[in-house]
Amino acid sequence: MFSKPKEKAATEQMLDLDRIPAHIAIIMDGNGRWAKARHLPRIAGHQQGMQTVKKVTIAASDLGVKVLTLYAFSTENWKRPSSEVNFLMQLPIKFFDTFVPDLIKNNVRVMVMGDISALPAPTQKVVNQAIADTAHCTGMILNFALNYGGRDEIIRATKAIAKRVQTGDLTADNVDESVLSQAMMTGSLGDLADPDLLIRTSGEERLSNFMLWQLAYSEFVFVDQHWPDFDGESLKAAITTFQGRHRRFGGLENK
Questions:
Q1: Whose CA is closest to 209, among 74, 89, 47, 53?
Q2: Please, are residues 15 and 239 in contact by the beta-carbon 8 Å criterion?
Q3: Spatial contact of 32 and 42, defined as CB atoms under 8 Å apart
Q4: Lowest-confidence pick of 2-6, 52-56, 60-64, 165-169
Q5: Terminal CA-to-CA distance of the chain, rounded, Å?
Q6: Across the chain, where does the E strand assignment appear?
Q7: Catalytic annotation, residues
Q8: Residue 182, SS3?
Q9: For 203, which DSSP code?
Q10: pLDDT tens for residues 137-161?
């Protein structure tokens, strides 16, 4: 219990602020298990998880992260009980209603990828309003994957490219990685589209249909903490682990 201040100091000492990953993606897992361990309903875990999003967003912004992508709701999450889905659809409303002023204060711009047209109208409205209200911000981009699926994204990008070929705007021979990357939902991020670091909480070690194209050469860090227990220090620890890796992108390590 009394070692936490020392652990915090050690993490900060090891962290190289000149090598902070530009784009961090997080699969926020474990809200339900966090609640179950405390004999609480699952929605209590989602509620606490929303508070964690706020803390981690500010921590990432303060560290100089340029893009923070959070897997908020997947195309498969519709399979959950309707009561839980309905609650999850209310979370963006509660989140943005209370947090947009802080986002603006911290110069954070909101971006959303996924099919938000399928969300309930009130949820769509608050999401679009948050995007508009923070459009002038020039700092970190807080990118929510909302009603998002990696395979769905690739299918949509493929269809968009096929239409360009069909209309003669593009030839099939000219379709390459760059063309496909630009057609993805992260295309507007340019050089920042691909995460440097993927973090998944709650001990699970799978991608769950998340950013299948963009994560090709990302570093993965899996942590045992449930998402509601994750915080700024947890983020720093994951970045420290990332900084200990040697990224070769399929080539040979420089010696």
A1: 74
A2: yes
A3: yes
A4: 2-6
A5: 42
A6: 23-27, 67-74, 109-113, 141-148, 197-200, 219-222
A7: 29, 77
A8: helix
A9: T
A10: 999 999 999 999 999 999 999 999 9
